[in-house]
Every structure is written in C-alpha cells, then in structure tokens.
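Worked problem 6 (solution included).
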Amino acid sequence: MAAPTNGLQAPSKARVCFTLRVRPDRLDEYRERHAAVWPDMLEALAATGWSNYSLFLAEDGLLVGYLETDDFDAARAAMAETDVNTRWQAEMAPFFEGTDGANADDSFNVLTEVFNLETQLAQAEGEGAGNE
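Solution. The predicted structure is:
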C-alpha cells in the first residue's frame, strides 16, 4: 500500500500512520518485547527506510504506529526480504487481533493524514508573501 498522498505530505518524506490491535492478555509482554527490540531488527528498519518510527499502545490494545519514509511500499517490501523481519513477524503474530494469522506488516490499517501543522504554516506563509 502506497503512502497516502493528499497534498499534505512534505515533499521530502511521506508520513505514515497505521493502527493494529494487540490482544489484551498480551499487552504487558508486547511492551516488554518493544522495550528491547533486537539490534538486527533496528538496523534492518533503518536500512530499509523506516525513519522516525514510533509505536503507541493504549490500555485497550489499540496500537498506533507512525513513520516517515521516502516510499512506504518499497520500505515494507525491503523489510519483507530480511531474515530478521521473518523471524520477528513470526514471534509477534500471536500478539495481534484481527490479522487472521497474517504478518502485522501486511495488516496495517493505514490512516489518511488530514492535518499537518508545518505544512499548513508553510502554505499560509507562501500565500501571505504575495500580500505584502
């Protein structure tokens, strides 16, 4: 799935936000696993174009992810080709609801960006420049 393009993205990087749902009985273990992600997984994410990547977890299991990338489809495809991602996805699969056994990376509910402060400030400054 390509990064959403709705005119709000900065030209240099696409901002991508997605949701998943962690099983309520696995929340503590999910937090523990992400407190110390394998170093080779961290390196693979960075090498394949996942930058400024964060995960946020609500008490009800709602997981919200955010990342910036040049090309979301390419970044996901590159990760899918790594051995470390194959191992990580296999270990993480039991943590998620509603994926029907698919890898979490293939089950993202990608959200559409509808507002970005910096983008709108830049647009407002550009429009104001002609009014002087």
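Discussion: Helices lie at 27-35, 39-47, 72-80, 83-92, 117-129.
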